[in-house]
């Protein structure tokens, strides 16, 4: 596979996510305008952050009259998943030049990461150059659509009928991203724990219960992995 072929393969592999990214990004544009942001502010946030989950989190907290530092902290905490994404991609893309890696970091989105890391694991014969090309192919489809549809949602605003129910895209997006990555018992345990704890701590103000749930889920997942490794070692 040449670098050119890898680029277009990444582009096509991310194509199914268009069905989710279009309503997801339009919904952000609508919600941002409802929250009081003008079109310039909405687009500035979308272009600078490019992370739907943290953008929605910040808007929701600001609408709930949460302090600005709480909104910023929450958005940063949600975006910490990008640090884990980066760590997972280092073995595949760490060889790239600093400027290239900086551009990769800026363009990183959940959908393209999920597709790229799965492809790298399934196709270990890919060369370093084709891995970089594949990554950019995946990103180049998602990001422009995110910008364009955010603008469309911000411009149309209330003209979009409620019957379209654009909010369906948010949970479906993360289910589609997460489900293929649940490859071990520890992954499943962590996912189920996060769901249970998110419900248990739903009473915590400003949605901070989600972060408590995430921390508990990570600890439980890690302990499950350690338990399985110890049991395997004892069995051998």
TrEMBL record:
Subcellular location(s) of the protein: Cell membrane
Top-rank lineage group of the source organism: Bacteria
InterPro entries for the chain: Brnchd-chn_aa_trnsp_permease
> Where are its TM segments located?
6-31, 43-62, 68-90, 132-157, 164-182, 188-221
Of the GO CC terms on this record, one is:
plasma membrane
Kindly give the membrane topology term recorded for this protein: Multi-pass membrane protein
| One Pfam family hit | AzlC
Gene Ontology annotations of biological process type: L-valine transmembrane transport
Enumerate the UniProt keywords alphabetically: Cell membrane, Membrane, Transmembrane, Transmembrane helix, Transport
UniProt lists the family membership as follows: Belongs to the AzlC family.
UniProt-recorded name of the protein: Inner membrane protein YgaZ
**Lineage start:** Bacteria, Pseudomonadati, Pseudomonadota, Alphaproteobacteria, Rhodobacterales
